[in-house]
């Protein structure tokens, strides 16, 4: 049996020489971490009570007398890990012994193993997803100190590629792959819904039902709030628009081009073409007209944005019940829906919401919601602790590199846990400011 010296020599890594000195390394530093920024995540979570609320949504089938790792501890471990960049369950075989992560989770010893976390995912069912979505909405409402005058709800569908034989797997022609078709709802920077769906459906499926639930919950809290539904042409459905008009919900939704719409704008487009050919400058006009599709019971206001340039004609149409100047509504309101696509990218790429490799559909829905909880943590960290700093608007990848990935030596004894943070770390001032903000009443 090799002694410690022999084992250390076996693991030694040589880096070459600097002058007369040999440069070498070995994984024998003891309680060190590259993730000391997890303490910020833990402080944000406890200020919000987020994981405590989420833990109450998951039914634990285990015998209470035999439980070592509680649901709230496992959720913290998993969600903090996603925020830190550890997307795979297998990563936790080593991370469970990281003292900094243990401390942030609130455990004095090893946290859950990868198999234990895997079993957590298998407890999920439809009611779990329903209750976790309630937590997301409740957290959104709690973020307001006073009643908002207006809320703009962005609905958007996207693809979630699949590479196995997952339950609910179908081929989608538009995305040209096997995938899920999740539906996201954002209000500004905040995430309200991360609803996983199979891809063999209309992209607007369940939108009306989700919108109705969100409107009812928000108006119960804020009876006078003005709510605006915003989406691309994939959400221009009679059921959705009719509900908005019945429920006094404003809407501004893309309208797919067709022959009748292009016939209405044909003469303007010809005029713009002539102007472009004469001047060589890109032409742009925003106008409006009344229009009714054959399936509509009445005419509605349609805003059109026409462009003609080197690539030819490029019309866009938007249907709305809002009042105001067409150009302002199009440029300042409708075009801002593109920001929701950036937020979806942050959730899917930055927090690994696309890692839906479980066999069961509801387990994959839970994974998507764990990424959503991670997104809420990051968004609230920005809002509560980073305002006025250089990282106030940083996306999750930047925050991870500049604020969460922090080297430290960790010591733990009977009286104190101490993190010896890197002395020459560029983000030290921002980190200290953020922790001070989170610990303030």
Describe this structure as you would to a colleague.
- The chain is α+β, with helices and mostly antiparallel strands and 441 residues long.
- 42% of the residues lie in helices and 20% in strands.
- The chain contains 17 helices and 17 strands.
- Strands 4, 8, 9, 10, 11, 12, 13, 14 and 15 form a 9-stranded mixed sheet that branches. The protein has a 3-stranded antiparallel sheet with strand order 3-16-17, with helices on one face.
- A hairpin with a 2-residue loop joins strand 1 and strand 2.
Q: Share of helix among residues?
A: 40-55%
Largest sheet: 9 strands, mixed
Mean pLDDT: 94
Rounded to an integer in angstroms, the radius of gyration calculated over CA atoms is 26 Å
Number of helices: 17
Beta-strand content: 15-25%
Low-confidence stretches: 1-9
SSE class = alpha+beta
Number of strands: 17
Distance between the termini: 55 Å
Looking at the structure, what is the overall shape?
globular
Fold blueprint:
Elements: H1 4-11, E1 13-18, E2 21-25, E3 32-33, H2 38-48, H3 50-55, H4 71-84, H5 92-95, H6 99-105, H7 114-122, H8 126-142, E4 150-157, E5 160-161, E6 170-172, E7 177-180, E8 183-187, E9 190-195, H9 207-221, E10 226-231, H10 238-246, E11 250-254, H11 259-264, H12 266-279, E12 283-291, E13 300-309, E14 312-313, E15 316-320, H13 326-333, H14 338-350, H15 361-385, H16 396-404, E16 408-412, E17 417-421, H17 428-439
Parallel strand pairs: 4-10, 10-11
Antiparallel strand pairs: 1-2, 3-16, 4-8, 5-7, 6-7, 8-9, 11-15, 12-13, 13-14, 13-15, 16-17
